Amino acid sequence: MARPHAVVVPYPGSGNINPALQLSKLLRRHGVFITFVVTEHNLRRVQAAEGAMAGGCEGFRIEAIPDGMLDADRDGQDYDIGLSKATTQLFAAPLRDLVARLRNGGGGVPPVTCVMPTSLMSFALDVARELGVPSMVLLGFGAAPLMAQMRLRELKDIGYLPLKDESCLTNGHLEKTIIDWIPGMPPISLGDVSSFVRTTDANDFGLWFNITEANNCTKAGAIIVNTFDSLEADVLAALRAEYPRIFTVGQLGTMLRRRDLSNVDKESGSDSIDLTLWKHDTECLAWLDSQEPGSVVYVNFGSLTVLTVGELAEFAWGLAATGRPFLLVIREDLVRGGGGVAALPPEFLVETADRRRVATWCPQEQVLRHRAVGCFLTHTGWNSMLESIAAGVPMVCWPVFAEQYTNRKYACEVWGVGLRLDEEVRREQVAERVKEVMESEEMSKNAARWKEEAEAAASPGGSSYENLLGLVKALEDEGS
Ligand code: UDP
User: Fold this and answer.
1) What interface predicted TM-score (ipTM) does this complex get?
2) What is the pTM (predicted TM-score) of this model?
3) Looking at ligand 1, which atom is closest to the CA of residue 384?
4) Which of 362, 383, 388, 404 to mutate to test the pocket of ligand 1 (most atoms within 8 A of CB)?
5) Separation of CA 213 and ligand 1 centre (Å)
6) Residue boundaries of the structural domains of the chain
7) Fold of 282-453
8) What 3-state DSSP class applies to 383?
């Protein structure tokens, strides 16, 4: 049997690169040959982030293609929208050339048997079809956000979208409008369906793009989801009724930690490949070692969120008021207008000097699994939220963008592991919610239960473990 060869094409942000890399490592451990496609811009960033290792290893190669963006457009507030436009319009041609070049293999590379983009990259599915290569898509989020986004089109058709006027954004309309007909989902407010409902423009790019991309996932031969069956049982059952080829293989970090899924070290060398775009502050792990179990508040807003200076100050003073030690991660580009860590109020730095650690980027999964961490204040990006669930850490949730509102809904009201923060950040509420989460026995019990569920799913006989084997088999079948 020929070795399967997947060309993995993540959307060029950490929320997609990370799970795509984790899945690639798992597949490689099972003998799948991987070509991992990054943008030239991101490859330069990986190489510049000291400590990050791009390279490649047996059965894993990296290819870089241009993302088509002008450097001047990378700093703007709408970076993600610009990136989505650029990838959609300009990525297809170089990707087509790459897949065409590799299609028949040669020089130690087996013929390509699958093109595997993440969500938001459906042009790659078209490229695969044009070249006659099978395809599968890896979602950058869970089953519930997919189901919700697939319904944006119906919400448009029945006149809920775009919003009638600007007042709908502030008069409680988004919270009061309840959608109770999405298959497999509990009643959900319009505002929790997606950030892209927040528009009065019928031609809004974000809305159009997300409707198109959510529905285009079904063009793929299979949908791979970084989730586990018991976490999203109802919505997965509803999705599978429409699209039976769904492989749930998460939480990917938990799966990767299982050594019995790996024959890689003894047979084909290490897969410690790292594609982080920022330099990791690994010293924060040593700082965590010095803290009491369950005492630390960990705060991180992911790779794309942008805060105002005022919002950062409210979060900072809220943390100060908890009286707890905290690890606060502030990316260089987190604060609108720049400033990074320097945007923190100087008095706050003095007042909290003995119980804070500030970092610009950290090894998040290791941090969340550290025994010192007792609460995660998060923007509820899918990966961050799932990493927290798999580590058994309850959350304070402050969504900003895309599917993060749906994630918060599930964390707070379905899984019982989170509390909401208002959109307008207030220090008193930040302190109150952090304390409530850290003192709640119920939330801690729920979090521990979901951690066990995640472990069980990743164990032999568990849903994710078995689905991964099924996915490998499907890739082998495509190649034969
Ligand atoms: N991440 C990390 N270190 C950080 C911040 C984030 O390793 O300091 C990783 C995090 O573990 C997750 C990803 O970056 O895997 C962020 O993805 P997510 O879906 O949570 O949010 P996004 O960045 O897409 O908004």
Assistant:
1) 0.99
2) 0.95
3) 20
4) 383
5) 21
6) 5-144+205-261+460-476, 282-453
7) Rossmann fold (3.40.50)
8) helix
